[in-house]
Design a protein that fits this description.
The chain is mainly alpha-helical. It folds into two domains: 140 residues, no CATH class; 149 residues, Up-down Bundle (Butyryl-CoA Dehydrogenase, subunit A, domain 3), CATH 1.20.140. It has eleven helices and no strands. The protein starts with a helix and ends in a 14-residue tail after the last helix.
């Protein structure tokens, strides 16, 4: 009975931990940014009303209210400046000479042809199907490696290769499931590959080659598997740059859409308070000021929700092969 209760407690703890991890991943990556911003804004508004109800905030004097809305006005103007800077950054990346554009297109086209040669068919042009093709190439190469003869007296090598093939296949299956169930957006494709950049798998493959006397066919199969890993990481890094440009462009547009109304509301409230008597009416105190204060924070909340995801993506894809970081191996 005690063991049963212990197992039940462990299972409950794992369920709670799993639920917390799912919520954390939704907040950091998978959740819609506008939905997250709306939830944060509702939470801030609830906190404002709670402080008013608890009489922590009483609005007895107008002077502090002036300071708050003056700060919101100047802060939102700073955010608009940030938007302009982001747009300049994006524009600078797009301003290239014809030679630079031709070189970039040629490099991308050559990479695409290498993937097609390995797959034996034409590669898709959308991120998610293209990554799915790369994963299928890697799975086939791993399974081909698992079916080869290792050579006499190499039982340890066989165990290591079998473990490598099993772990790679299991991971590719999970990524493929995410790709097939996700939308075809660049981020959905990128998010499916954030758990590793295969640096550890490449290290294990190289270690097997160095420490064991393998057949030539097996050695070449390991080299081809390493090449497939590199192709996945190249595609991931390229799609990351595409995603960041898309996301920063969306952030710039959303901040401009939200910044003008928020700035207008703050200015109108501040000017209206200058015409009010010394005391604030209950209607303004309990209905107008908390709502308008939350409205003034809309640009900041939007900036927080968007940058939270871009920072997470950048952190989890910071290292390129052959190196990795603990944040990438999740």
């Amino acid at each position: 009975m005690a063991d049963r209760n212990t197992n039940g407690g462990d299972s409950s703890e794992k369920d709670v931990r799993s639920r917390v991890d799912r919520i954390r991943e939704w907040v950091l990556l998978r959740g819609d940014r506008l939905t997250l911003a709306a939830l944060l804004l509702v939470g801030l508004l609830a906190v404002f009303y709670l402080l008013v109800v608890l009489r922590v905030i009483r609005f007895r004097r107008l002077q502090p209210v002036y300071y708050v809305f003056s700060g919101l006005i100047s802060g939102n103007l700073t955010l608009i400046t940030v938007v302009v800077s982001i747009n300049q950054l994006l524009l600078s990346r797009e301003l290239q000479t014809p030679g630079e554009l031709e070189s970039q297109i040629q490099n991308v086209d050559e990479f695409k042809h290498r993937v097609e040669d390995a797959a034996g068919r034409i590669a898709p042009v959308r991120p998610a199907p293209f990554l799915d093709l790369l994963m299928e190439n890697t799975r086939q190469e791993a399974q081909r490696l698992g079916g080869l003869a290792i050579g006499p007296g190499c039982d340890d090598a066989w165990d290591e290769i079998d473990d490598l093939v099993t772990s790679v296949t299991r991971h590719i299956d999970s990524v493929t499931a995410l790709l097939t169930s996700s939308e075809t957006s660049t981020f959905r494709a990128l998010s499916a590959t954030l758990t590793t950049n295969y640096a550890e798998e490449i290290y294990r493959a190289r270690k097997i080659q160095v420490t064991h006397d393998l057949t030539e066919e097996t050695d070449e199969a390991l080299d081809r598997l390493v090449d497939r890993f590199k192709e996945v990481d190249i595609a991931r890094q390229y799609f990351k740059s595409v995603y960041l440009q898309e996301e920063l462009s969306s952030l710039s547009r959303v901040l401009l859409y939200a910044g003008l109304p928020a700035e207008t509301i703050s200015v109108v409230v501040l000017l209206s308070l200058t015409t009010s008597p010394g005391d604030i009416s209950p209607l303004v105190r309990f209905a107008v000021l908390p709502v308008t204060a939350a409205a003034g924070l809309v640009p900041l909340v939007l900036l927080f929700s968007f940058i939270l995801r871009t920072a997470t993506v950048t952190q989890r894809t910071a290292a390129s092969l052959p190196f990795t970081t603990p944040k990438q191996e999740r």
